[in-house]
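## Example record

The block below lists the input lines for one assembly entry, exactly as stored, with component labels intact.
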Amino acid sequence: MLSALSLIDYLSVVDSRSATSVIQKLRPHVYVRGSDEKQSLQEEAAARTIGARIVTTEDIAFSSSQLINAHFDIYPPKTKAFLEMVKRTHTAADIIKELQGLARTKILVIGDTIIDQYHYSRPLGKSYKEPIVVHGFLRAESYAGGTLATANHIAALSETVSLVTILGKRQSFESFIRKKLRDTITPKFFYREGSGTIVKRRYIDEFTGYKLFQISFVNDEPIASGLEAHIYEYLAELLPNFEIVVVNDFGHGFLTKKLIRLITRKAKYLALNVQANSVNFGFNIVTKYPRADYVCIDNQEIRLATHDKYGDLDRLTKKIFKKLSASDIIVTKGPYGSLSYSKKHGMIEIPALTGRIVDRVGAGDALFSITVPCVWAQMDPTTVGFIGNVAASLKIATVGNKFPIDFAELTNYITRLLK
Ligand SMILES: Nc1ncnc2c1ncn2[C@@H]1O[C@H](COP(=O)(O)OP(=O)(O)O)[C@@H](O)[C@H]1O
Ligand SMILES: [Mg+2]
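Predicted structure tokens for the full assembly:
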């Protein structure tokens, strides 16, 4: 582009971070540099030695993110107002520093393993004999989902994450799972007789990305009492060693009444997420747990837990908060962001931060995972809600649990939003 300007006769690319050697070779009459460039004493000295005049340009240093945030309406008014408010009291650098401070937290994650399969296909035509559309298979991808995804997300913040989960004895997918877990995670697998590891397979129309159908391979009966006794013994010894115990309960038979009682009694700090899904709808309710320190729940789950379809969400939030003797609760509201509540700070609304949706699977889990160590460390709840919604935004921009939340991505997004 520069060489296309008629003013410019000749230009050359300098393959060096410093202009010193070029100044010495070209011996220019004038050496011009940008105002935002760091002062380089060596370059200045080289220019002075050959008697060149040093000129600094008076252009304004700008950031493209700052320009986009200020001049393009990329966020809805609520989000814009929220980001302005955060900017007044926080800098991205401060938030990132706080997140870096969480690296040593010892965290135990307990919950169901799920393999998420995505089978992509293309419609061929109507079946000749039945009233159905037949699809042609294109390709399949598998991701580490359920509690594996939660452990992977948390490992973006903490270097010492342990995981306790169950796989099926046959078709365990163990080598796949080990490969997909981040290196810093220490897993302990228990094996369930007579069933395979849980698989949720979705059929996707390749062209539109629409999900056509899902088939779940799940045995959600409570685990056998022999296996339960083994896990009980193992957990009883393990639980007191961790600063945080995270339970990600998908209601697929692993977390029995007995194990729940043990965990709620022995965990120093319990972060809890109990999921509603098609397998367990209406049965897997957070109030199965007598207590938790931090509860993360979605809008539908809290209504199931309180048997209240239309009631005021603030009231229901306080109800569950009280029932579980929690010190913090976050209710996620899909496209409406999240609601945080604690005695000290009251209700805090955080708007959703993105409109870019590829796949909503695992959105709540990403928010839950990333906020756990933040809530535990008693970071300011507005910051925590902000970070959580950033994590959810990153998650829903990708398919399934293909990529766990990455620390650099998380902090880059935070920096960009606060420019
Ligand atoms: N349609 C959406 N638009 C923008 N953000 C969304 C949307 N759906 C989910 N999110 C983000 O993901 C978070 C969790 O989503 P939610 O649907 O409430 O949980 P879950 O996945 O557990 O059902 C929300 O708080 C929000 O930040
Ligand atoms: Mg959820």
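The chain has a mean pLDDT of 93. The longest strand covers residues 113-126.
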